[in-house]
């Protein structure tokens, strides 16, 4: 098999990259470890081996439509990747996410640049403009009175699934998809600086995919393992590269917990408005003002208000989405075996408490008394972020163009590249980064 660009994985990042590169005249081969058709065995293959705390699907109890068997698997192995499971919430990162440093990491892309990409993606995928929505203007006026920040988010119904779009691209002859393929190693140029191809296993067969120009590893956890195999596995000039890392630190997620609930009622204009607008797609997220998050040096956490879609009189659930700071102990381990080692650390708990002390009185001023649940239980976490941070420093794994610093033509398109998490659902940013990468690799359209 020969191509200009080999893309590993078939989730959102891969799809965006593949279609843009194909439009710009590159021949594209997509290598997917899972099947073309979803099968029950995918649930077992998709489960993430974890230690310490279970990384659960964010779908459980948070409104996503998760098929049976996936309750603890926050990703999907197969054509379309985790688009098969996701619940379709779109959100931009905030300005301060791009501006501030956390644990020595900082985004190497400016807010204005990233926003230009993510706005183009949002428009392309059908997110209706916030400014044209009268309902949102009313929210904004109400929220403006209590020193909180309204966070822009949209839930697409039904959520976009990629499988049919991949099949369309393939039928149109724009790309080639090879399913059930496992990456086992690499072929390097004689000087050892660049990849010439990827060694794969498909069933019992061992094959080589020659990539004349680029290789891109995708997927929040997968890109870590695949790139590790390409950089340090069979066929790599390991002697020159030194000892392979046993773990990639600073893995993050967005742990979610239900704080409590608030009753709907005529005397509660915000909740009344929210309940009336169920089904419009726009979501009500609230946060501390950006200047205050900076000054207090807390996480950029968000609280979402969820009315019951089926019952207007049911209480509205109040859910917190946490930002985690990168910590070395939260990591993707490659040795002695593959394992994601992750927990909501004491540091994150304390940070959450600090935030709630400042946030909850203002929330209650806005929406009335909150019936708080006696304990805070973080349950959902399905956004894999940050083990291969991009950055300007020579110590970052990826450069600002998502290239691995030690291989001239190996790139990463995935949330693993996020240096700082924010608390925004990541897919819009994942797609925006993939589109930016397509522009970098293949040039403007
Ligand atoms: C229940 C649930 C709800 C979610 N809801 C939201 C939401 O509302 N909003 C939001 O922004 N995000 C949400 N997410 C997260 C979102 O789904 C992911 O961030 C996004 O799908 C990641 O896309 P990706 O392309 O990076 O990776 P993935 O979609 O995970 O793709 C990785 C691909 O790599 C393939 N692969 C794995 N290993 C290999 C290998 N060795 N060789 C070849 N291929 C391989 C996989 O099969 C898969 O196709 C949700 C996630 C879950 C689980």
CATH arch. level architecture: 3-Layer(bba) Sandwich
**Biggest sheet layout:** 7 strands, mixed
Low-confidence segments: none
Number of continuous helical runs: 12
Helix content: 25-40%
Separation of termini? 26 Å
Mean pLDDT: 91
H-E order: EHEHEEHHHEHEEEEHHEEHEHEEEEHEEH
Q: Please name the CATH topology.
A: FAD/NAD(P)-binding domain
CATH class category name: Alpha Beta
Shape: globular
What portion of the residues fall into strands of 2 or more residues? Answer: 15-25%
Number of domains: 1
CATH-assigned homologous superfamily: FAD/NAD(P)-binding domain
Cofactors, ions, other ligands: flavin-adenine dinucleotide
Helix/strand-derived category reads alpha/beta
Give the strand tally: 18
Gyration radius over CA: 22 Å
Tell me what the structure shows:
With 445 residues, the protein is of the alpha/beta class. Helices cover 28% and strands 22% of the residues. It contains twelve helices and 18 strands. The protein has helices spanning 12-23, 41-46, 95-99, 111-124, 134-143, 163-171, 222-232, 238-241, 269-276, 290-296, 346-367, 427-442; strands at 2-8, 28-31, 50-52, 89-91, 149-155, 175-178, 181-188, 195-202, 205-218, 247-249, 256-262, 282-287, 302-306, 316-321, 331-333, 339-342, 371-372, 410-413. It is globular. Flavin-adenine dinucleotide binds at residues 8-14, 31-34, 57-59, 64, 66, 74-75, 77-78, 81-83, 85-89, 182-183, 218-220, 222, 226, 382-383, 414-415, 425-427, 430.
Secondary structure layout:
Layout: E1 2-8, H1 12-23, E2 28-31, H2 41-46, E3 50-52, E4 89-91, H3 95-99, H4 111-124, H5 134-143, E5 149-155, H6 163-171, E6 175-178, E7 181-188, E8 195-202, E9 205-218, H7 222-232, H8 238-241, E10 247-249, E11 256-262, H9 269-276, E12 282-287, H10 290-296, E13 302-306, E14 316-321, E15 331-333, E16 339-342, H11 346-367, E17 371-372, E18 410-413, H12 427-442
Parallel strand pairs: 1-2, 1-9, 2-6, 3-16, 9-18
Antiparallel strand pairs: 4-5, 5-12, 7-8, 8-9, 10-15, 11-14, 11-17, 12-13, 13-14, 15-16
Helix pairs in contact: 1-12, 4-12, 5-9
Bound molecules: flavin-adenine dinucleotide.
